[in-house]
Amino acid sequence: MSKKLKILGLIPARAGSKRVKNKNIRFLGGKPLVAYTIEAAKKSTLINRIILTTNSKTIAGIGRKYGAETPFLRPKEISQGTSTEFEFHFHAIEWLKKNEGYVPDLIVNLHPTTPFRKPKSIDLAIKKILAHPRADSLRSITKCSEHPYKMWLAKGDYLEPFVPKKDSGAHTLGYQQLPIVYIQNASIYITKPKTLYKYHSSVGEKVLSFIMDEMESVDINCELDFLTAESLLSQKL
Length: 237
Known about the structure:
Elements: E1 7-12, E2 27-28, E3 31-32, H1 33-43, E4 49-53, H2 57-65, H3 85-100, E5 106-109, H4 119-130, E6 137-143, E7 152-155, E8 158-161, E9 182-191, H5 193-199, E10 207-211, H6 223-234
Parallel strand pairs: 1-4, 1-5, 6-10
Antiparallel strand pairs: 2-3, 5-9, 6-9, 7-8
């Protein structure tokens, strides 16, 4: 399967994180955060090319050290905090097509902020989307720890439910009485080039689910997340 299909592992690691300075190359357990994702991609049996998309020469150099390619630097205009996933996906495949004649069959987006994903999970997600040819994309998800029925919008001094319900008591129910809700976990997002061109989106309309556990879904975005990750590593979980 991997020999016939071109499966690209694309790792987005821009410089300029606001909440945690140099987040993607900050050390966790003795190596840069991005290294965990590159190593997981290298151990995948189905990914046959790994590219780091970044706007930083420093991050690019670290990426190459751990085994990722960096054939281009991401332009400044699509390396902002407001830049979208579609923008860096589209830039990557357009650059590769124009400069190398390379068009992948699948783009496997692996954010460096989820360091505990397993190579086996990457392969299972790839196999799932290959088994569903009508799917536009796949999103990894995990069960919500905070339920949207318990969320509110602040309107002055008063609250309005984020999810309006006819039953005003829905907000007081126990979690086991509420519908099971999932949230995307930033671990494994897979899309197809044709989805990018057709929808101008990395998602499209037919989106497959890929459920992951809490450990693989740990997403590092703030100082507390780093402390949690260090604790998990120290306990060898």
